Amino acid sequence: LATSFYVVQRTSQARLAGDLSPWFVVLGYNLFIVIAGTGYLLGLTQGKEYAEPEWYADIWLTIVWVAYLLVFLATIWKRKEPHIYVANWFYLAFILTIAVLHLGNNATIPVSIFSPKSYIVWSGVQDAMFQWWYGHNAVGFFLTAGFLAIMYYFVPKRANRPVYSYRLSIVHFWALIFLYIWAGPHHLHYTALPDWAQTLESDLRTPGRKWLSVPVLNYRECYEQESCSSFSCRLSPS
């Protein structure tokens, strides 16, 4: 979250939208961690891997995450740079995908408004599918997409060179979105999940993983190149 606020300002040539909204996001997210951690100590969890916090913590995180999305989008909206730098595309993918995963995997019904306990609306294999679609992409987007965004800004900045191919980085982005996002069923091989779902996920994930090597080429060439096109240079954070 912190690096996205740092990078979007510098690549958009604009200050963060709102005076208090960014502070609400930062403090609100830290409050969520405190609420969730307190629940763990009290034994209040959903019993779902990577999604242990109960419904009251999930609702608070949803509010904070929506505010985060609005601040990020509003900053891009008022940018002075005509193009959206590729790092911001990856940050947006990270924000939006985590939002969808969070809402789907944490769709619960509280026992009562005063009870910290809740029950998931999904059952059986549907619950398992949602859990591991969330579980895998919690790594695939909360970590991978976020770190790719960081690298697409700081590697060119550190090397004082633009990325090797800006167009290739855009292809990399869409490959991640359309192929890698379906990962999840491979955590459920030899279960009640239909075979077609397991097979389809593997067929999509394999080329998706190949495209994850694209930034390696971009970063390596970024350090080695001596010249660049005007288009790439203009979009470089350096």
From TrEMBL:
Membrane-crossing residue ranges in chain numbering: 20-43, 55-77, 89-113, 133-154, 166-183
One Gene Ontology cellular component: membrane
Topological type in the membrane: Multi-pass membrane protein
Pfam families for the chain: COX1
Top-level taxon in the UniProt lineage: Bacteria
Gene Ontology molecular function terms on file: cytochrome-c oxidase activity; heme binding
Main location: membrane
Gene3D superfamilies per UniProt: Cytochrome c oxidase-like, subunit I domain
Annotated ranges, domain Cytochrome oxidase subunit I profile: 1-215
InterPro entries noted in UniProt: Cyt_c_oxase-like_su1_dom, Cyt_c_oxase-like_su1_sf, Cyt_C_Oxase_1, Cyt_c_Oxase_su1_BS
Keywords: Electron transport, Heme, Iron, Membrane, Metal-binding, Respiratory chain, Transmembrane, Transmembrane helix, Transport
UniProt-annotated location(s): Membrane
GO BP annotations, alphabetical order: aerobic respiration; electron transport coupled proton transport; respiratory electron transport chain
Family named by the database record: Belongs to the heme-copper respiratory oxidase family.
Protein name: Cbb3-type cytochrome c oxidase subunit I
